[in-house]
Amino acid sequence: MIRPDPYRALAQAIGRLLKEPISVTPAVAEFAASALGLTSPAEIAAVLTQGTTDDREQLLDLLLFPDEAAQVLLEPLLESLPLGNDAPARLLAAMKNHRPHLVLQLPDTGRQVKFTLPGDTLERYLSRLNPQRSLERETRTCIQQNLADSRQIAVKVAIRNHNLPADPRPWRLLRRFIAAGDAAAADYAGCLNMVLQLLETRPVPDDYYPALARQKHIYAGELRRWEQFNQHQQRLPMESLLLQGIHPPALTREDLLKSMDRIDRISLALFGRMEPVEPPQHHTQPLESGKKR
Fold first, then answer.
1. Could you tell me if 194 and 254 lie in one domain?
2. 147 and 117 within one domain
3. For residue 89, which phi and psi values (nearest 5 degrees)?
4. Global pTM value
């Protein structure tokens, strides 16, 4: 009996996804204008069909960067197939009969532009799906036991998108977060991604809490910089501050508060404690000038 190719169904599903019209998002338009000098969707379409190889590849990589909505559709297939470390190469081979002609939807006129997907771009697209990664049994069981069905696939996609080390200790901590975290919270996905970034970039488990604490103090310092900047704005217009080299912090106050809240919830879930920080205080200490933040 001939066993079916385990990559065929996945290749077919990816082919169907890539046949859907691609939109020029604001992020793509901004990149095209700033990096390539393209100021209209028609110019973007011209580069995709007739432009130089380098410019076309940059645009295609941005247009085709897999979003989590597409990955959620593919995850059941990825999870069920016996994929290995050679998965990207074998998947690329299976895609040879399913390479679609892409369709670009122009937002200003509604016109559709068709072009062929280059093989090297397809290879990069498939590699970014991370088909060679898989969940070990304990983490899969933890997800099934602690998360609602509607949440499970998105969590698996988030884990697939991070290259966690083979060391079992980060995986134990991840399972602890999945079991203890508030999956119903509106910002659960943001907390999960922060945990995954921590586990991916910190090889020493003993450094996890200190790393979170240090980052929270950095964010608190940026909040104090906002208080200082607001004091300056009460006395001088923005143009004068910029001429003096005084700039606002890079992150907005809302983003800083959200990140600190994530750290608190992660710290409680994983370590049962939160790092105390000094609250912002109103004062007139001058901001450091001469540097862009």
1. no
2. no
3. -65, -45
4. 0.78
Element holding 251 (H helix, E strand):
none
Q: How far apart are CA 266 and CA 244, in angstroms?
A: 39
| Contacts of 211 by beta carbon, 8 Å cutoff, 6+ apart | 198, 202
Contact assessment for residue 192 and residue 162, using Cβ atoms and an 8 Å cutoff? no
- Rounded to an integer, what distance in angstroms lies between the CA atom of residue 30 and that of residue 157? 27
Q: Map residue 101 onto helix, strand or coil.
A: strand
**Does residue 157 surpass a pLDDT of 60?**
yes
Tokens of 277: 């920080």
Kindly state whether residue 124 falls inside one of the protein's structural domains: yes
Task: Report percent pLDDT > 90 for the chain.
Answer: 28
Q: Please, which residues have CB within 8 angstroms of residue 110's CB and are 6 or more apart in sequence? A: none
What is the spatial distance between Cα 152 and Cα 142, in angstroms, rounded to a whole number? 10
Q: For 85-117, what is each residue's pLDDT tens digit? A: 788 888 888 888 766 678 887 766 777 888 777
∠ at Cα 166 (157, 73), nearest 5°? Answer: 15
Q: Are 118 and 105 within one domain?
A: yes
What are the φ/ψ torsions at residue 182 (nearest 5 degrees)? -90, 90
Where in the sequence is the domain holding 239, given as residue range(s)? Answer: 207-271
Percentages helix, strand, coil for the chain (3-state, rounded to 5) are: 60, 5, 35
Q: Could you tell me the two tokens for 215?
A: 């980052």
Token pair 């069981």 is at which residue? Answer: 141
Q: Report the candidate in 188, 265, 261 with the shortest Cα–Cα distance to residue 219.
A: 261
Q: Sheet containing 22-23: which strands, arranged edge to edge?
A: 22-23, 101-105, 112-116
d(CA 176, CA 135): 15
Residue type, 229: F
